[in-house]
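Record filed below.
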Amino acid sequence: MSNQLTRRLALLDDDEHRALLGQGLRGIERETLRVDRAGRLARTPHPEALGAALTHPQITTDYAEALLEFITPAEHDIGTTLHKLDAIHRYAYTKLGDEMLWSESMPCELPEEADIDIAWYGKSNIGMLKHVYRRGLALRYGKAMQCIAGIHYNYSLPEQMFQLFSNSEGIPEERRSALRDFQSESYIALIRNFRRYSWLLMYLFGASPALSTGFLRGRQHQLETLSGDTLYLPYATSLRMSDLGYQNDAQSGLTPHENSLESYVTSLMDAVNRPYKPYEALGTRRDGQWIQLSTNVLQIENEYYSTIRPKRVIRTGERPVQALCKRGVQYIEVRCLDVDPFEAIGISVETGRFMDAFLLFCALDESPLINQMESQVHARNFARTVKEGRRPGLTLTRHGEEIALSAWANELIERIAPVAALLDSQHNEDGVHAASLAAQRAKIANPALTPSARVLDEVRALGSSAAFGLRQSELHAAAFRDSPLMPAEAALFDEMAATSLAEQAIIEQTQTGSFDAFVAAYNSSTLCGD
């Protein structure tokens, strides 16, 4: 165990400080496609009964009009977070009619590109900005990509914890700006450790080893054929996170430096402002209609598809990097988790407990800077795991040498164990984090227990990835419909929906200025004052 990890664990294990462990926040964003009873993509608009996708705090859409996104409030305990996520699902099912929520990360059988609708947010300038951005994504990556779903895990530690660490590590308490910088750089250090070890999450929780043939739209691939409508890789854990996911040539050379917040922001802003010739050839308008927000490598910084992001809650009209520059990192967003098709809400509390222990370990442990060669090694370890993670004898690269994935995974679990024990020491339920670690050890010992192996077993038995997705979707739909919310809970969601519709109407009625001017102001980052 590293000196820093030992020292910080001892600080947090002190009676005076242990309560800090329960003061961080957890939030989940779950994406899920609306499908019809046959498991085909829903062609209907976002249900008005769910509220306005532009302004609703918990129910919105992501890229495609049919791709719902459920956003929980931030809670101190992941169990509470998932209870809130469950409630959103139960409410949604009262407004979906005959439609269902797709149970997997990789999409159902999709129609032709022209028949996949891009998310619509109304006629306001901000609504059109969101829509045109998605038009640009469709242009750059294809619409099928806009139907992929995932789980985003938002995680923060309390500011008092960073103050405790900074005081013990030599930063005077009165230097407030230094404390903010210390917090930001601590989150960036967490992200570096995440880069080192996130292959483990793909092995343990990857759940997309197969996909429907039509998803690839004729693209070249090296997948194997399982049946007439299903492609797969026999040892894959997450094809969603492979090079078949959100990738293109423009982003291929983009590797934001995560050795400091400043270098991260600088590299992203360079990509947002750097022209890309193939996009310049397309322009920003076609037949008088906007088709993308810019012709640069990235339209906006969120287009950079990363497995993890430093985040700060943004103010109206503010760009994400502006928020980071002005007020520092507030939390991190983990973006590489597949939807778990065996869980009705897409993620289990056991997974959440492991994520908390894993991320706290990444935050507490020493995190040396990463050079370009090391960054390539981390990316290669991740890529190997998503395509071959369950291959017997698979090795990854560590410190220039090859090590068996299983051996390294077990070492990591042992290093995380004291963190899990510390979390359990302040938790109301005994041993929940340690129990989650035990479940992960079992997966390392027996790859057949991993979600990806279990999915592949079911797909093989049914002969079709789409048939498996439909069956799981039907099971989850029945469970939610059989146990709706209590009337008082449903009334709160009804009120949120009505409020969001009213807020969108006010935005559309009171806005001033043209959309062209709005885009120009956004692109030049002049929408917010300070």
